Amino acid sequence: MSDILEQVSTAIIEGDLDEIVDLTEDALDEELGAEEILNKGLMAGMDHVGVEFKAGNMFVPEVLRSARAMQMSMEILNPLLAESGVQMLGKVLLGTVKGDLHDIGKNLVAMMCEGAGFVVKDLGKDIAPEGFLEAVKEHDPDVLGMSALLTTTMRSMESTIKALEEAGVRDKVKVMIGGAPVTQAFADQIGADGYASNAASAADLAKQLVS
Ligand code: B1M
Known about the structure:
Elements: H1 3-14, H2 20-29, H3 34-54, H4 60-84, E1 90-96, H5 104-116, E2 118-122, H6 129-139, E3 143-147, H7 155-166, E4 174-178, H8 184-190, E5 194-195, H9 199-210
Parallel strand pairs: 1-2, 1-3, 3-4, 4-5
Helix pairs in contact: 1-2, 1-3, 1-4, 2-4, 3-4, 4-5, 5-9, 6-7
The structure holds CO-5-methoxybenzimidazolylcobamide (B1M).
Protein backbone atom coordinates (compact mmCIF):
# COMPACT_ATOMS: atom_id res chain seq x y z
CA MET A 1 0.00 0.00 0.00
CA SER A 2 1.25 3.53 -0.75
CA ASP A 3 2.66 5.54 2.10
CA ILE A 4 -0.11 8.16 1.97
CA LEU A 5 -2.86 5.52 2.13
CA GLU A 6 -1.22 4.02 5.18
CA GLN A 7 -1.15 7.46 6.74
CA VAL A 8 -4.86 7.96 5.97
CA SER A 9 -5.65 4.57 7.49
CA THR A 10 -3.59 5.34 10.60
CA ALA A 11 -5.30 8.73 10.98
CA ILE A 12 -8.67 6.94 10.96
CA ILE A 13 -7.55 4.38 13.54
CA GLU A 14 -6.14 7.12 15.76
CA GLY A 15 -9.11 9.43 15.16
CA ASP A 16 -6.69 12.15 14.12
CA LEU A 17 -9.07 15.04 13.42
CA ASP A 18 -6.20 17.50 12.88
CA GLU A 19 -4.58 15.54 10.06
CA ILE A 20 -7.29 13.63 8.25
CA VAL A 21 -8.43 16.44 5.93
CA ASP A 22 -4.85 17.33 4.87
CA LEU A 23 -4.00 13.68 4.37
CA THR A 24 -7.10 13.13 2.22
CA GLU A 25 -6.15 16.15 0.10
CA ASP A 26 -2.53 14.96 -0.12
CA ALA A 27 -3.75 11.58 -1.37
CA LEU A 28 -5.84 13.30 -4.05
CA ASP A 29 -2.83 15.50 -4.96
CA GLU A 30 -0.86 12.30 -5.48
CA GLU A 31 -3.52 11.46 -8.07
CA LEU A 32 -5.00 8.57 -6.12
CA GLY A 33 -8.67 8.02 -6.95
CA ALA A 34 -11.40 8.74 -4.42
CA GLU A 35 -12.44 5.07 -4.52
CA GLU A 36 -8.91 3.87 -3.76
CA ILE A 37 -8.62 6.31 -0.86
CA LEU A 38 -12.00 5.12 0.43
CA ASN A 39 -11.22 1.40 0.12
CA LYS A 40 -7.55 1.25 1.03
CA GLY A 41 -7.36 4.20 3.41
CA LEU A 42 -10.67 4.86 5.18
CA MET A 43 -12.25 1.42 5.08
CA ALA A 44 -8.97 -0.31 5.91
CA GLY A 45 -8.77 1.93 8.97
CA MET A 46 -12.38 1.38 9.98
CA ASP A 47 -12.02 -2.41 9.52
CA HIS A 48 -9.21 -2.30 12.02
CA VAL A 49 -11.31 -0.16 14.39
CA GLY A 50 -14.15 -2.70 14.10
CA VAL A 51 -11.87 -5.61 14.98
CA GLU A 52 -10.32 -3.79 17.94
CA PHE A 53 -13.73 -2.61 19.19
CA LYS A 54 -15.13 -6.15 19.04
CA ALA A 55 -12.06 -7.43 20.86
CA GLY A 56 -12.57 -4.85 23.61
CA ASN A 57 -9.30 -3.06 22.81
CA MET A 58 -11.00 0.15 21.68
CA PHE A 59 -13.85 1.93 23.47
CA VAL A 60 -16.86 4.01 22.42
CA PRO A 61 -15.19 7.47 22.63
CA GLU A 62 -12.27 6.28 20.48
CA VAL A 63 -14.59 4.69 17.93
CA LEU A 64 -16.65 7.90 17.77
CA ARG A 65 -13.47 9.86 17.08
CA SER A 66 -12.43 7.46 14.32
CA ALA A 67 -15.91 7.72 12.86
CA ARG A 68 -15.74 11.53 12.98
CA ALA A 69 -12.40 11.42 11.15
CA MET A 70 -13.98 9.15 8.56
CA GLN A 71 -16.88 11.58 8.11
CA MET A 72 -14.49 14.53 7.63
CA SER A 73 -12.65 12.66 4.90
CA MET A 74 -15.90 11.49 3.30
CA GLU A 75 -17.08 15.09 3.02
CA ILE A 76 -14.20 15.63 0.58
CA LEU A 77 -14.52 12.30 -1.21
CA ASN A 78 -18.32 12.05 -1.51
CA PRO A 79 -18.75 14.47 -4.45
CA LEU A 80 -15.90 12.76 -6.29
CA LEU A 81 -17.35 9.32 -5.64
CA ALA A 82 -20.74 10.48 -6.88
CA GLU A 83 -19.14 11.89 -10.06
CA SER A 84 -17.29 8.66 -10.79
CA GLY A 85 -20.42 6.57 -10.13
CA VAL A 86 -18.71 4.29 -7.61
CA GLN A 87 -20.83 1.29 -6.67
CA MET A 88 -21.47 1.21 -2.91
CA LEU A 89 -22.39 -2.06 -1.16
CA GLY A 90 -25.99 -0.99 -0.75
CA LYS A 91 -28.22 1.32 1.27
CA VAL A 92 -28.89 0.98 5.00
CA LEU A 93 -31.79 2.84 6.58
CA LEU A 94 -31.41 3.27 10.34
CA GLY A 95 -33.38 4.57 13.26
CA THR A 96 -34.08 4.22 16.96
CA VAL A 97 -37.63 3.00 17.55
CA LYS A 98 -40.66 4.92 18.78
CA GLY A 99 -40.51 6.21 22.34
CA ASP A 100 -36.76 5.67 22.55
CA LEU A 101 -34.31 8.57 22.63
CA HIS A 102 -31.09 6.57 22.94
CA ASP A 103 -29.06 7.11 19.80
CA ILE A 104 -25.38 6.72 20.66
CA GLY A 105 -25.26 3.03 19.74
CA LYS A 106 -27.35 3.60 16.61
CA ASN A 107 -24.97 6.40 15.55
CA LEU A 108 -22.05 4.00 15.95
CA VAL A 109 -23.85 1.45 13.80
CA ALA A 110 -24.38 4.16 11.15
CA MET A 111 -20.71 5.03 11.14
CA MET A 112 -19.55 1.42 11.00
CA CYS A 113 -21.92 0.73 8.11
CA GLU A 114 -20.61 3.79 6.28
CA GLY A 115 -17.08 2.62 7.00
CA ALA A 116 -17.95 -0.76 5.51
CA GLY A 117 -19.09 0.87 2.25
CA PHE A 118 -22.83 1.40 2.64
CA VAL A 119 -24.79 4.53 1.91
CA VAL A 120 -26.54 5.22 5.22
CA LYS A 121 -29.77 7.11 5.67
CA ASP A 122 -30.20 7.83 9.37
CA LEU A 123 -33.77 8.67 10.35
CA GLY A 124 -32.79 9.61 13.89
CA LYS A 125 -34.62 8.55 17.05
CA ASP A 126 -38.20 8.04 18.23
CA ILE A 127 -39.26 6.65 14.86
CA ALA A 128 -42.73 5.12 14.75
CA PRO A 129 -43.51 2.04 12.62
CA GLU A 130 -45.29 4.31 10.10
CA GLY A 131 -42.14 6.48 9.91
CA PHE A 132 -39.98 3.46 9.09
CA LEU A 133 -42.55 2.24 6.59
CA GLU A 134 -42.73 5.58 4.76
CA ALA A 135 -38.93 5.79 4.69
CA VAL A 136 -38.64 2.26 3.29
CA LYS A 137 -41.05 3.22 0.51
CA GLU A 138 -39.21 6.48 -0.14
CA HIS A 139 -35.58 5.34 0.04
CA ASP A 140 -35.85 1.71 -1.06
CA PRO A 141 -33.03 0.51 1.23
CA ASP A 142 -31.40 -2.92 1.08
CA VAL A 143 -31.32 -3.13 4.87
CA LEU A 144 -33.52 -1.57 7.54
CA GLY A 145 -31.77 -1.36 10.91
CA MET A 146 -33.68 -0.66 14.12
CA SER A 147 -32.16 0.11 17.49
CA ALA A 148 -33.84 -0.02 20.93
CA LEU A 149 -32.33 0.51 24.37
CA LEU A 150 -35.46 0.16 26.47
CA THR A 151 -37.31 -3.06 27.21
CA THR A 152 -40.49 -1.01 26.87
CA THR A 153 -39.71 0.13 23.31
CA MET A 154 -38.28 -3.01 21.71
CA ARG A 155 -41.81 -4.25 20.90
CA SER A 156 -42.01 -1.40 18.40
CA MET A 157 -39.59 -3.40 16.24
CA GLU A 158 -42.23 -6.10 15.93
CA SER A 159 -44.90 -3.51 15.06
CA THR A 160 -42.62 -2.10 12.37
CA ILE A 161 -42.10 -5.52 10.81
CA LYS A 162 -45.88 -6.05 10.89
CA ALA A 163 -46.40 -2.66 9.23
CA LEU A 164 -43.94 -3.63 6.48
CA GLU A 165 -45.79 -6.92 5.99
CA GLU A 166 -49.20 -5.26 5.88
CA ALA A 167 -47.96 -2.76 3.29
CA GLY A 168 -46.58 -5.62 1.16
CA VAL A 169 -42.97 -4.41 1.29
CA ARG A 170 -41.49 -6.81 3.86
CA ASP A 171 -39.77 -8.96 1.22
CA LYS A 172 -38.12 -5.91 -0.38
CA VAL A 173 -35.88 -5.15 2.59
CA LYS A 174 -33.76 -7.11 5.08
CA VAL A 175 -34.40 -6.17 8.69
CA MET A 176 -31.62 -6.14 11.28
CA ILE A 177 -32.07 -5.18 14.90
CA GLY A 178 -29.91 -4.43 17.92
CA GLY A 179 -29.55 -2.55 21.17
CA ALA A 180 -28.74 -3.61 24.72
CA PRO A 181 -32.02 -5.44 25.60
CA VAL A 182 -32.34 -7.08 22.17
CA THR A 183 -31.30 -10.71 21.63
CA GLN A 184 -31.07 -13.19 18.79
CA ALA A 185 -34.05 -15.03 20.31
CA PHE A 186 -36.10 -11.82 20.15
CA ALA A 187 -35.02 -11.26 16.54
CA ASP A 188 -36.15 -14.81 15.68
CA GLN A 189 -39.42 -14.33 17.54
CA ILE A 190 -40.40 -11.16 15.68
CA GLY A 191 -39.17 -12.33 12.26
CA ALA A 192 -36.18 -10.02 11.81
CA ASP A 193 -33.51 -11.19 9.37
CA GLY A 194 -30.68 -10.65 11.79
CA TYR A 195 -29.43 -9.39 15.13
CA ALA A 196 -26.06 -7.86 15.98
CA SER A 197 -24.74 -7.23 19.46
CA ASN A 198 -22.43 -4.36 18.55
CA ALA A 199 -21.77 -1.81 15.83
CA ALA A 200 -18.93 -3.64 14.15
CA SER A 201 -20.98 -6.86 14.00
CA ALA A 202 -23.91 -4.84 12.61
CA ALA A 203 -21.76 -3.75 9.65
CA ASP A 204 -20.67 -7.38 9.11
CA LEU A 205 -24.30 -8.49 9.31
CA ALA A 206 -25.42 -5.84 6.81
CA LYS A 207 -22.74 -7.14 4.40
CA GLN A 208 -24.02 -10.71 4.86
CA LEU A 209 -27.61 -9.63 4.35
CA VAL A 210 -26.87 -8.00 0.97
CA SER A 211 -24.50 -10.68 -0.30
CO1 B1M B 1 -31.06 5.75 29.38
N1 B1M B 1 -31.43 3.94 30.01
N2 B1M B 1 -32.89 6.29 29.84
N3 B1M B 1 -30.51 7.51 28.78
N4 B1M B 1 -29.31 5.08 29.30
C1 B1M B 1 -30.38 2.95 29.83
C2 B1M B 1 -30.53 2.22 28.49
C3 B1M B 1 -30.64 2.00 31.08
C4 B1M B 1 -30.12 0.56 30.87
C5 B1M B 1 -30.04 2.66 32.34
C6 B1M B 1 -30.29 1.84 33.59
O1 B1M B 1 -31.36 1.88 34.14
N5 B1M B 1 -29.30 1.11 34.05
C7 B1M B 1 -32.19 2.10 31.23
C8 B1M B 1 -33.01 1.09 30.44
C9 B1M B 1 -33.63 0.00 31.29
C10 B1M B 1 -34.35 -0.95 30.44
O2 B1M B 1 -35.32 -0.65 29.79
N6 B1M B 1 -33.88 -2.19 30.43
C11 B1M B 1 -32.44 3.53 30.78
C12 B1M B 1 -33.57 4.31 31.13
C13 B1M B 1 -34.54 3.64 32.08
C14 B1M B 1 -33.79 5.61 30.65
C15 B1M B 1 -34.95 6.54 30.97
C16 B1M B 1 -36.33 5.87 31.02
C17 B1M B 1 -34.58 7.23 32.28
C18 B1M B 1 -35.66 8.15 32.82
O3 B1M B 1 -35.92 9.17 32.26
N7 B1M B 1 -36.27 7.67 33.89
C19 B1M B 1 -34.87 7.56 29.83
C20 B1M B 1 -35.69 7.13 28.60
C21 B1M B 1 -35.73 8.20 27.56
C22 B1M B 1 -36.29 7.64 26.29
O4 B1M B 1 -35.58 7.02 25.54
N8 B1M B 1 -37.58 7.83 26.08
C23 B1M B 1 -33.40 7.52 29.50
C24 B1M B 1 -32.70 8.59 28.98
C25 B1M B 1 -31.36 8.57 28.67
C26 B1M B 1 -30.60 9.81 28.20
C27 B1M B 1 -31.40 10.69 27.25
C28 B1M B 1 -30.23 10.60 29.42
C29 B1M B 1 -29.29 9.15 27.60
C30 B1M B 1 -29.38 8.89 26.08
C31 B1M B 1 -28.61 9.91 25.27
C32 B1M B 1 -28.51 9.49 23.85
O5 B1M B 1 -28.50 8.33 23.47
N9 B1M B 1 -28.40 10.51 23.01
C33 B1M B 1 -29.28 7.81 28.30
C34 B1M B 1 -28.13 6.98 28.38
C35 B1M B 1 -26.83 7.58 27.88
C36 B1M B 1 -28.19 5.67 28.91
C37 B1M B 1 -27.02 4.70 29.19
C38 B1M B 1 -26.30 5.25 30.41
C39 B1M B 1 -26.01 4.50 28.09
C40 B1M B 1 -26.61 4.07 26.74
C41 B1M B 1 -25.52 4.15 25.70
O6 B1M B 1 -25.46 5.10 24.96
N10 B1M B 1 -24.60 3.17 25.70
C42 B1M B 1 -27.77 3.34 29.48
C43 B1M B 1 -27.14 2.51 30.58
C44 B1M B 1 -25.98 1.71 30.06
O7 B1M B 1 -26.02 1.15 28.97
N11 B1M B 1 -24.94 1.66 30.83
C45 B1M B 1 -29.17 3.78 29.66
C46 B1M B 1 -23.43 3.19 24.80
C47 B1M B 1 -23.82 2.62 23.44
C48 B1M B 1 -22.60 2.60 22.52
O8 B1M B 1 -24.24 1.29 23.64
O9 B1M B 1 -26.59 1.84 22.95
O10 B1M B 1 -25.99 -0.47 23.84
P1 B1M B 1 -25.62 0.74 23.08
O11 B1M B 1 -25.26 0.31 21.59
C49 B1M B 1 -24.40 -0.78 21.29
C50 B1M B 1 -25.15 -2.10 21.12
O12 B1M B 1 -26.32 -2.21 21.86
C51 B1M B 1 -25.34 -2.21 19.63
O13 B1M B 1 -24.20 -1.55 19.10
C52 B1M B 1 -23.86 -0.45 19.92
C53 B1M B 1 -22.38 -0.24 19.86
O14 B1M B 1 -21.66 -1.42 20.07
N12 B1M B 1 -26.50 -1.64 18.98
C54 B1M B 1 -26.92 -2.14 17.78
C55 B1M B 1 -27.27 -0.59 19.28
N13 B1M B 1 -28.18 -0.40 18.34
C56 B1M B 1 -27.99 -1.34 17.40
C57 B1M B 1 -28.66 -1.59 16.19
C58 B1M B 1 -28.21 -2.65 15.41
C59 B1M B 1 -27.16 -3.46 15.81
C60 B1M B 1 -26.49 -3.21 16.99
O15 B1M B 1 -28.77 -2.95 14.23
C61 B1M B 1 -29.64 -2.05 13.66
